[in-house]
Amino acid sequence: MKTTPVLLALTALVALLVPAAHADELFTAIDGAPRRALWVDTGFATWHFNRDKDLNGANRGLGLEYQLRGDLAATMGRFYNSDRAYSNYAGAIWQPYAIGPVRLGAVIAAFNGYPHMRAGGWFPALIPVATLEYQRVGVNIGVVPSYKDRLYGGISVQLKLKLFE
Prior knowledge:
The protein has one helix at 5-20; strands at 28-29, 34-48, 58-69, 72-80, 86-99, 102-111, 123-134, 137-144, 154-164. By secondary structure, it is mainly β. The chain starts with a helix and ends with a strand.
């Protein structure tokens, strides 16, 4: 079996969660107090569930993530998607809970650029996401659901760098 960056990221995430599972409270609520930080995000590295399709897993791109509160950030960006077309996105990352250092929640966003989904037009999406941050670096790991033969799901990893706080 070939080792992929996504597999390595998931292994690291599990290693971080195992000690947290022995804590008194498995889930902790994230403080919703105002917090300001600006992150620059890369595109995505995606391991697709449909391995038999010729999908692009190197979803290069650039995005911004602006932290509004401890549990909420606004996000937007552009990337080269799995269907080898450019996509844009805009939305919010809501992560009300954590397990140890890993924040959990979902991205609620609008996307475009997928040729088989609304002819490339805009559509809403809800994507479960886990985030791990350390000082000025971080990673978002999303589980993208498949939708019929229009969107191909997978596990996506996005690296990020904090510009200021």
